[in-house]
Amino acid sequence: MSRPRRSAAQTPAPVQRGRGRDRHGRGIRSSATGPYLPPLQTRIDTFDMTVASTVDYLRSVWPDELADARFEVAAGPATVIPGVGVERWAVFPQERRIVLYRLPIQRLSRLHRNDDLHRRMVIESCVFRAIAELLGKDPWDLAPDRFRHF
């Protein structure tokens, strides 16, 4: 048996699926920020930029002492020492290397005000204290002129 033929007027239109689909009159989906906003910065990006800018500042103040020092960022320490807690950084003086642990610094710090400025200050203070430990100095001695406003 043969099928009866349909005329062109009876043939249903093909359904378009995929990229141009319009759901409930909302239009095509786009990124969360839209086309006119800059890309969002993540906590990892902000942490890395804060560490880099603080290290650059201290290298400009102590160029000879920090010339061959290496700085690394890791998610967290491999081991936790019982009774001591979670380290925020590790200093390896023989290798002239400092490892900053991002997650303990970001999540275990007790801030009295949880905003961008105070989060940045915690990161900067950890960098200062780690470099002071490497150089055998007091953290306040690393940038003495920075704190003299009078």
TrEMBL record:
Domain of life: Bacteria
Composition-biased stretches (Basic residues): 18-27
Residue ranges, annotated region (Disordered): 1-37
Name the UniProt record assigns to this protein: Metallopeptidase family protein
Organism: Cryobacterium shii
